[in-house]
Specification:
Pfam families: Uma2. InterPro entries: Nuclease_put_TT1808, Restrct_endonuc-II-like, Uma2. This is Endonuclease, Uma2 family (Restriction endonuclease fold). The protein is an alpha+beta fold. It has a domain of 128 residues: Alpha-Beta Complex (tt1808, chain A). The protein has 3 helices and 14 strands. The chain has a 6-stranded mixed beta sheet with strand order 3-6-9-10-11-12, sandwiched between helices. The model has no long low-confidence stretch (mean pLDDT 90).
Length: 192
């Protein structure tokens, strides 16, 4: 949900000044408040992060779970006041560790996973999808807890995401950025 503003463009400098207990993202200078994740959301996040983390152990690529800020930069931003896109994806994988600093990731992650909730469906499927595609995130997953589905979008040579591959909780996903990593969705979704 966008926060009210007076035609002002917010930046990463504003983000740093907000209280730490507030979950806020900034997209094209507009701040968006994030809801606190549900226990189911957190369980899915932990299960996905664990499978990826075990695979990445001893490798230069790293996985980060929220809260973890991602400053999607174009490369010409010199100051915090120049950065107008700050995200807190549920799960972020970064292969180039030169993009990691004390504040999170400054640059384009290789894989982003968002776990949708009823309040974030449009935001994750449209707003974030368009921003991640435009920035050049190689792989974007949208996880739907209610339907136990995962949509995987891969960046094509034309700079656009292709049609999604859709997986159910009974399937395994071969992660495109790591050809020998398979994520078992049966171990991701909580059984009720």
């Amino acid at each position: 949900m966008p926060l009210p503003q007076n035609e002002r463009q917010y930046t990463y400098a504003d983000y740093l000044a907000w209280p730490e207990d507030e979950r806020v993202e900034i997209i094209e200078g507009v701040p968006y408040m994030q809801a606190t994740p549900s226990p189911e959301h957190q369980e899915i996040s932990m299960n996905l992060s664990t499978q990826i983390s075990v695979y990445l152990k001893g490798k230069p690529s790293k996985v980060y779970a929220a809260p973890f800020s991602v400053r999607l930069t174009k490369g010409d931003e010199k100051e915090d006041e120049d950065i107008k896109n700050v995200f807190e994806p549920d799960i972020t994988v970064v292969c180039d560790q030169s993009k990691i600093d004390k504040q999170g990731c400054k640059g384009i992650p290789d894989l982003i996973i968002e776990i949708i909730s009823p309040s974030s469906i449009k935001h994750d499927r449209v707003t974030k999808f368009n921003q991640y595609e435009k920035a050049g995130v190689l792989e974007y997953w949208i996880v739907e807890p209610e339907g136990k589905l995962v949509s995987v979008f891969l960046l094509q040579s034309n700079g656009r995401y292709g049609r999604p591959e859709i997986y159910t909780d009974e399937e395994k996903i071969n992660v495109s950025i790591f050809p020998d990593l398979t994520v078992d969705l049966n171990a991701v979704f909580p059984s009720v």
